């Protein structure tokens, strides 16, 4: 087969045209027969839906072809777990601000159903008031639908407070949703109870305050704050029993990607630790992009 510019071979890879000017200080240099070819890294065009290799003849290595193979890393997928009031909401706000992930809070999805007065919401409220887990058939469907939406698929997602049982984790895996990292916030029980009992909701803005740690800015806001029905000491202790009973089973399914973080630290210190973990994950995934260079005779192509 004679060379006439560009050939295609079925394979999961992409290419870069080495005839472009060398405008980047970062170069890929590979030995081709007795010649060398340099490819500007910035000129690579990665695509998540790859279907073929493009073979381009190189002016710097006239008797060879350059094949650059790369696979784009998937958007970041993160699960964060912890007992009620472990600080998940606060950390999720900081994470999404920096990493632009889609924040999906299973608790918020459930409370929206409760507020809307749907049949699923009524059933969910009965379970929540007893400190029990909401049936999987209700919550799994809501979470699956949210994870499947285009913004979650394109930007990546941060799943907050879910899964809460091994059956939920199994259901998610069955749908193809698995995290790159699973973050668990560890907080002593006495601190958790204090955090929950002092929480208050602003029904106008939806913002969560704490009477001790994060009080409202004005008397006007303070006057309209309400306590969520599941934020009493009695109910939080029931929820903690349920959480402790199920968390180890969930962790066993994600043990290879689980990182424990001390959630009793200040929110700034907790975030610093989480940010370090996420940057490491991204760095490892970016480093996994493969660049390969092959001589043309490997594909039986003549340069004559």
From TrEMBL:
Keyword annotations: ATP-binding, Chloroplast, Kinase, Nucleotide-binding, Plastid, Transferase
- InterPro entries from the UniProt entry: Adenyl_kin_sub, Adenylat/UMP-CMP_kin, Adenylat_kinase_CS, P-loop_NTPase
Q: Which reactions does this protein catalyse?
A: AMP + ATP = 2 ADP
Task: Supply one GO molecular-function term.
Answer: ATP binding
Complex and partners: Monomer.
As for family, the record states: Belongs to the adenylate kinase family.
Protein's UniProt name: adenylate kinase
Q: Which organism is it from?
A: Fraxinus pennsylvanica
Lineage, top ranks: Eukaryota, Viridiplantae, Streptophyta, Embryophyta, Tracheophyta
């Amino acid at each position: 087969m004679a060379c006439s510019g560009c050939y295609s071979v079925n394979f999961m890879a992409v290419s870069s045209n080495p005839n472009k000017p060398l405008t980047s200080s970062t170069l890929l240099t590979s030995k081709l027969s007795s010649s060398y070819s340099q490819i500007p890294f910035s000129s690579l065009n990665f695509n998540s839906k790859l279907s073929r290799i493009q073979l381009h003849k190189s002016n710097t290595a006239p008797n060879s072809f350059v094949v650059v193979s790369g696979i784009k890393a998937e958007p970041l997928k993160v699960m964060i777990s912890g007992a009620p009031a472990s600080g998940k909401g606060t950390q999720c706000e900081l994470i999404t601000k920096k990493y632009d992930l889609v924040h999906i809070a299973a608790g918020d999805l459930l409370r929206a159903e409760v507020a809307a007065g749907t049949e699923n919401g009524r059933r969910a409220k009965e379970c929540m008031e007893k400190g029990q887990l909401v049936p999987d058939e209700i919550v799994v469907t809501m979470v699956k639908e949210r994870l499947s939406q285009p913004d979650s698929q394109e930007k990546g997602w941060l799943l907050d407070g879910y899964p809460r049982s091994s059956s939920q984790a199994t259901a998610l895996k069955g749908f193809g949703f698995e995290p790159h990292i699973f973050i668990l916030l560890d907080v002593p029980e006495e601190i958790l109870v204090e955090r929950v009992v002092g929480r208050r909701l602003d029904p106008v803005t939806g913002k969560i305050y704490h009477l001790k740690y994060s009080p409202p800015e004005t008397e006007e806001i303070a006057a309209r704050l309400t306590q969520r029905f599941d934020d009493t000491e009695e109910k939080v202790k029931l929820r903690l029993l349920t959480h402790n009973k199920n968390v180890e089973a969930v962790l066993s399914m994600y043990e290879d990607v689980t990182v424990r973080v001390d959630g009793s630290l200040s929110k700034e210190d907790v975030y610093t630790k989480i940010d370090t973990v996420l940057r490491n994950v991204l760095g490892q995934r970016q480093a996994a992009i493969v660049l390969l260079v092959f001589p043309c005779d490997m594909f039986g192509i003549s340069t004559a």
